[in-house]
Automatic annotation (TrEMBL):
Superkingdom of the source species: Bacteria
Ranges of residues in domain Pyruvate carboxyltransferase: 6-272
Key word Iron present: no
Keywords: Lyase, Metal-binding
CDD domains: DRE_TIM_HMGL (cd07938)
Protein name per the record: Hydroxymethylglutaryl-CoA lyase
Gene Ontology molecular-function annotations: lyase activity
NCBIfam families reported in the protein's UniProt record: PRK05692.1
Annotated Pfam families: HMGL-like
Ranges annotated as spanning the membrane: none
Organism expressing this protein natively: Shewanella electrica
Family (UniProt): Belongs to the HMG-CoA lyase family.
PANTHER family assigned to the protein according to its UniProt record, in alphabetical order: HYDROXYMETHYLGLUTARYL-COA LYASE
Gene3D superfamilies: Aldolase class I (3.20.20.70)
Length: 297
């Protein structure tokens, strides 16, 4: 049975914009405010990582300070280590997200340490977050394949996910970083992880490189999953995964869910206009089919 409600976790301002050409801080702020006005309730608005590696996110603190904080939105940020966590807390973030991988090679390329070392780095974040009552989300990348190692065992994904939950994450987002997954594989991977972690603590994060993201969501929806990550206009990719395209477009996800009678709280037209505006500013095509159709009318 499908859920009656799905919580959409919008990653466009972070996952999307981290892999686009530099966008002015004011344009990021306008995007985040427009997403909130469209009814989006969870927005990952930036990351506190090394500006040497991801210059696109170097102004995340300024972005958080300039957005108009809507009371219905939980604003989040990626924090790879305690230093990033402290920076995020200093600007009043609602929640943070740590990130590791199910693939050793990807972990090394992305955050320059092993999976075990990454978990060790997260320990002080979990401790500080618990003390300050800040919810911590966790990402596991490469759950359906790795650009360096190929196939990744679902049991490995499950083990890393379980460890993160045991450490204190309220939710683990399962990332198909390079978008190679197909529906049956996605279902099987989710079932394997769900053997170790309750479905209510899992989220799905599909990139759309092979055009399978929406099909993967549909295949997984009757598992009881109720949080899906997506990026407005299908923005972005991953700087450490060559060829990876953007996330599933939020507009396409909302259209699918509303068509199934599933509530999202989001006004689709307002969302599409927000995505179109940022695409114009970036000078790039809008990757949402739904936005293209809606805005052509
Ligand atoms: P490190 O281990 O300290 O070493 O950083 P490093 O050599 O990688 O970087 C060192 C430099 O980063 C030093 O600066 C540090 O001071 C600085 P330098 O002396 O060279 O000038 N540094 C920091 N700067 C700002 N904020 C910080 C911070 N920490 C260290 N918090 C680190 C490890 C993870 C920080 C670094 O490698 C990094 O920032 N990597 C970028 C990771 C990243 O943002 N990847 C993309 C996001 S993950 C993703 O997209 C996947 C996801 O969407 C899910 C999916 O699709 O699968 C989440
Ligand atoms: Mg991603």
């Amino acid at each position: 049975m499908y859920p009656t409600q799905v919580s959409i976790y919008e990653v466009g301002p972070r996952d999307g914009l981290q892999n686009e050409t530099l966008l002015a801080t004011s344009a990021k702020v306008a995007l985040i405010d427009a997403l909130a006005a469209a009814g989006v309730r969870r927005i990952e608005a930036g990351s506190f990582v090394s500006p040497k590696w991801v210059p696109q996110m170097a102004d995340s603190a300024a972005v958080y300070q300039q957005i108009h904080r809507a009371s219905h939105v939980r604003y989040s940020a990626l924090t790879p280590n305690l230093r990033g966590f402290e920076q995020a807390v200093a600007v009043g973030i609602d929640e943070v997200a740590v990130f590791t991988a199910a693939s050793e090679s990807f972990c090394q390329r992305n955050i320059h340490c092993s999976i075990t070392e990454s978990l060790n780095r997260f320990e002080p974040i979990f401790a500080a977050a618990k003390q300050q009552r800040i919810p911590v989300r966790a990402y596991v990348s490469c759950v359906l394949g790795c650009p360096y190692e190929g196939e990744i065992a679902a049991l490995q994904v499950a083990a890393v996910s379980k460890t993160l939950i045991d450490m204190g994450a309220y939710q683990v987002s399962l990332g198909d970083t390079i978008g190679v997954g197909t529906p049956l594989k996605a279902q099987r991977m989710l079932a394997a992880v769900n053997n170790q972690v309750p479905i209510a603590q899992l989220a799905l994060h599909f990139h759309d490189t092979y055009g399978q993201a929406l099909a993967n969501v549909l295949a997984c929806l009757d598992s009881g999953i109720s949080t899906i990550d997506s990026a407005v206009a299908g923005l972005g990719g991953c700087p450490y995964a060559k060829g990876a395209s953007g996330n599933l477009a939020t507009e396409d996800l909302v259209y699918l869910l509303h068509g199934l009678g599933i509530d999202t709280s989001i006004d689709l037209l307002q969302l599409a206009l927000a995505g179109q505006q940022v695409c114009q500013q970036l000078g790039k095509a809008n990757h949402s089919k739904v936005a293209q159709a809606l805005l052509a009318r």
